[in-house]
Amino acid sequence: MTSTVTTVGRGEAFVAAGREKLESALKAVAGPVAGFALFVLMWQVIAMQIPEIPTPGVTWHAAVTLFSDPFYDNGPNDKGIGWNLVASLERVAIGFGLAAVIGIPAGFAIGRYAAINAMFSPIVSLLRPVSPLAWLPLGLLLFKAANPAAIWAIFICSIWPMIINTAVGVSRVPQDYLNVARVLNLSEWKLTTKVLLPAVLPYVLTGVRLSIGTAWLVIVAAEMLTGGTGIGFWLWDEWNNLKVEHIVIAIFVIGIVGLLLETLLVALARRFTYTEE
User: For residues 170 and 107, is the Cβ–Cβ distance under 8 A?
Assistant: First the structure.
């Protein structure tokens, strides 16, 4: 009898736990679904009032047609949206990678050594607020080509968050850690790799996350100005062709890719963020 009661109790607890998880999942999904439905409704109402704006239905059908062959290639100025997206991501990867290779070690040096901090902090503070697109003409002057100039703009806009966040992280490493390293007579290399890097990694990843978001914003604008291949150029080209539904599709594609990059780096940052007990 006792065994039966225990089994029934466990079954009820299991059902209650399952119901609670289901309710939590529904609550998590209900908000975004309701918000997106409201957004589509408002979009439909605005499109009915302004005929130049395509309705959600028209945009959906255009997207289905567009993504049925996203990688067609009819020449340098007539490529599918897939190739344009790949070109933009490639530029972002190169510029962002160069910024990480230079910016993260520079941030370590600025945060670690007071003399370097005194020398370069004013320069960083002066150049950081400059709009990334203001650097684009200088890139065109230096490289004489649109593609490296766009990568240059990505590099410039990506490097500042990495330098600043890394430097702040190094400066906030507890003094006790450094004292222990001094007692153990660790070399500068071991101090950096065994003590500073693990402690500063969450700050570094925050800088990386901020940089990738900025880089993705800038590449779209840079490609509009430089032309060639890329999602920004494709968007501007569709405007010249008066294909407004394709412009709306490009906006959604840019937003989705940016969201995916942000989500990936947030998950990575959480993986390497530790809290003291």
Answer: yes
